[in-house]
């Protein structure tokens, strides 16, 4: 633990493995990390497969290193080079950072963890923050509820799109529009980039994706003066173009978060969700352990029509309370 | 309650409205329904918008009426005629059944209910079964986790596809393949129907979508002798073609469920999930009510780094246990 907090990469790796496997020592680890565990800026990077998430992440790591930040990367993307799904080129490029002591890169799998990645990821973010990372980039594939949940653990969420993939529509479907603080149309030199850019601008103008402490209908498309209107940027991460503008937008969003108190609000909301999930997980384990009148016995009675579900729930709670 | 159990449509309607709004009297209602609440055959009907779910549901209602069954329909589909999204033709056709006392049709919305439709739908199914419906058809749009959950409350799940909509691939993505017992390629007279049919057959042959009490890799694509291999049928519901074959497949699946004990297993699993969801909902409400050391206060401490989430979870549980 001491060595992890001093930034020893092997010690950090071991701790994240414990997090992934849902080790019984997690409460002690969490306690030992102390207040450093919340100090990192957490940035979520999401988007459909093929939009260039790992290339963009790679360039962002480079940009943050240039300004002296220590960077952690958690890749929870099955198509990511970190987890083995991508082409060799990406893999090799990422290895540039692998020998940089100021960069910690880690793929996450959900093996063994009770709550899956949605539970393991915030714990891993705390480990990286505790090990001295100033910035933690969490890269996820932007499809499905689980990924939206993981993205929601970030202070700032960056959604990548690529031209001609129908991504703008997909983004709405998957609920990603609501979680995006910054959109990046990557591969901006390709045909259709302008159309994608306009589509997403149009959707934002229609009032989607506005975050703020309150939402009202007004003259400016539902925004209040203190609201954040999602930024839309263009980039070509493979050519390292447009990266500085992304970093600038990230810092602008950070300043907004702090100025408006939204950072505190988001972090408290996340903390509440995490605490509740841990507590409910504990209770679920207790349900399974109840002797006699356990969940399975009650379920059999309900399935047979001998008991109704509400009465069964009451009996279950009586068993643990 | 007496009148609902006797099948009075207005009394049934009132009960389902109470279910939708999460009325405090739900436990008493559930208790009063007694063992009739589990007697109906529950069939889930799902698929993307535009595949012909309501037309197919309509024809299935007709077919079940012809063989003397009392039928309940719960439409939890925003694009369904019952909830206002479809064309007038469908709406009028469904009204044929509206004057049949052996058919009870109801749309479901999630207004007010704590657990949303996923919580309200099983309760509404019990009301319909308690009111004497032999068959309850639950129609949902097959996109998103919530809909998959709702479909999973059925004994048999029927997934509708239509030619040329890329549905086969979508089905895999959305996790629908895993829940389908019967596939119906609707609009089978259209171009591409054969290709869709072959696609879905191919995916089943690759070992997806096999349900059974155990799954092993074997010579027959992962199936064991007692396993159910999803049926794939073609139909043109708008022309009332292929409906008898669907009813036959539904009864065949029913016989399989009963013969193998899978019906009991599925219903117990569903009952366990429902009981647990009710119990966790109660506990979540208790968390919110805790004085002083309540969830919000603990979340603020965790967000500030003064407390770790595990310690906060323990304190939260100490508050209610």
From TrEMBL, chains A, B:
Q: State the Gene3D superfamilies in the record.
A: P-loop containing nucleotide triphosphate hydrolases
This protein's UniProt keywords: Chaperone, GTP-binding, Hydrolase, Nucleotide-binding
What are this entry's molecular-function GO terms? GTP binding; GTPase activity
What InterPro entries does UniProt report for this protein, alphabetically? Answer: GTPase/Isobutyryl-CoA_mutase (IPR052040), GTPase_ArgK (IPR005129), P-loop_NTPase (IPR027417)
Q: Which domain of life is it from?
A: Bacteria
Keyword GTP-binding found: yes
Family membership noted in the UniProt record:
Belongs to the SIMIBI class G3E GTPase family. ArgK/MeaB subfamily.
Which protein are we looking at? Transporter
């Amino acid at each position: 633990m001491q060595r992890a907090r001093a930034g020893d990469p092997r010690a950090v790796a071991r701790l994240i493995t414990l997090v992934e496997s849902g080790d019984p020592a997690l409460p002690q680890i969490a306690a030992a990390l102390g207040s450093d565990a919340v100090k990192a800026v957490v940035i979520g990077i999401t988007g459909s497969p093929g939009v260039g998430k790992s290339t963009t992440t790679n360039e962002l790591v480079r940009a943050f290193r240039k300004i002296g930040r220590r960077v952690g990367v958690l890749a929870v993307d099955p198509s990511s080079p970190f987890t083995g799904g991508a082409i060799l080129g990406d893999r090799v490029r990422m290895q540039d950072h692998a020998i940089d002591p100021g960069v910690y890169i880690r793929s996450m799998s959900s093996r063994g963890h009770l709550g899956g990645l949605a539970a393991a990821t915030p714990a891993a973010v705390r480990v990286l923050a505790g090990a001295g990372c100033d910035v933690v980039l969490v890269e996820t594939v932007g499809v499905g509820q689980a990924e939206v949940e993981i993205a929601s653990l970030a202070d700032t969420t960056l959604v990548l799109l690529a031209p001609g993939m129908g991504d703008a529509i997909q983004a709405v479907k998957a609920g990603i529009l609501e979680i995006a603080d910054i959109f990046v149309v990557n591969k901006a030199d390709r045909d259709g980039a302008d159309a994608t850019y306009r589509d997403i601008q149009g959707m934002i103008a229609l009032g989607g994706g506005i975050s703020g402490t309150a939402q009202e209908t007004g003259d400016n498309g539902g925004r209040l003066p203190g609201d954040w209107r999602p930024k839309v940027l263009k980039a070509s991460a493979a050519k390292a173009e447009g990266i500085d503008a992304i970093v600038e937008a990230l810092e602008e969003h950070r300043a907004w978060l702090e100025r408006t108190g939204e950072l505190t609000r988001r972090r408290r909301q996340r903390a509440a969700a995490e605490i509740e999930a841990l507590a409910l997980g504990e209770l679920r384990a207790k349900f399974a352990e109840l002797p006699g009148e356990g969940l399975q016995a009650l379920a059999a009675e309900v399935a047979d029509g001998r008991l109704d579900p509400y009465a069964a729930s009451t009996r279950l709670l009586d068993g643990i309370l």
